[in-house]
Amino acid sequence: MSAFDYDETGKIVLDDIYNQTTPVPYYTQLSALGYCVPERARPLFQQVIAARRAESGNDAVKIVDVGCSYGVNAALIKHDQSMSGLASFYGEAAKQGMKRDELIAADREIYAEPDEQTVIVGVDASQNAIDYAVAAGILDDGVAADFETTAPNARQAEQLVDSDLIISTGCYGYISEKTLDHLLDASNGSKPWMAHFVLRMFDYDAAVESLNDRGYVTRQIGLPVRQRRFADDAERAHVLDNLAERGIDPEGREADGWYYAQLHLSCPENEAGPLFERWQGAAAAV
Which helix (H) or strand (E) segment is 8 a member of? Predict the structure, then answer.
């Protein structure tokens, strides 16, 4: 009998680690599962950010990170941290029994010299995760909300306005095009580009169609990247079943015991050149 519970997608339920008052359980559990998609995503995000800056002619860039949790993408992109370094730091904090205030103080030293030209606003359903990441200086701002069911309120819209890029690393499938539509509406016409790493077992077509209706074009970029290992054989079996239903071959990827995520890039049609030209042969239309 498995030690885990599973959600409707077949993934193990890890809800507890996403809503703790510190990131220690998050990094402890996920590092044990080889969680690595933020590290794999970072160089591609950096290329997209560079292209966005070149297109706008402005070094300052505002990024909205959807499903940001404790700000892991911000830690890597804005503060030049690494997944191994974060896992080591919070693992040591767990051994020492550090309290929340002590951790925040230590983090504020680590994140004291950020990339000032990169502003990252996190969006996540977990209030605890958002509160920690903002208090620790990992995120510039954070919105704790579920935009699947409600649109941003006036305060949240102020936090999200004028974004240049909207990113995610694995949360699509738990959010849908509804959340992306609400974020685009809140951008106040800034026409942010999008870069979403989507687990291969999830269908991204509804998001592509919604973006098409807004005048965006979308491309799949490069090869899928690892997200994390399966927790057990039951989770692996669930995922392989999901992939089979979608007609996706898992050989060499999920069949070897890992979740894989595919990068989907989107931007307004008239800006597609600056975004996609650097990938040319690696970009496939969807």
Answer: none
Residue 50's CB: how many other CB atoms inside 10 A? 13
pTM attached to this predicted model: 0.95
Please tell me the total number of residues recorded for the chain in this structure.
286
Is the separation of the CB atoms in 4 and 32 below 8 Å?
no
Rounded CA-CA distance 255/126 in Å is 32
Structure tokens at 74: 């911000």
Structure tokens at 257: 């015991």
Q: In terms of Cα–Cα distance, which of 133, 127, 125 is closest to 70?
A: 133
Strands 216-229 vs 283-285: parallel, antiparallel or unpaired: antiparallel
pLDDT digits 0-9 by tens, 135-156: 999 999 999 999 999 999 999 9
CB atoms within 10 A of CB 46: 12
Segments of the chain scoring below 70 in pLDDT: 1-3, 13, 280-286
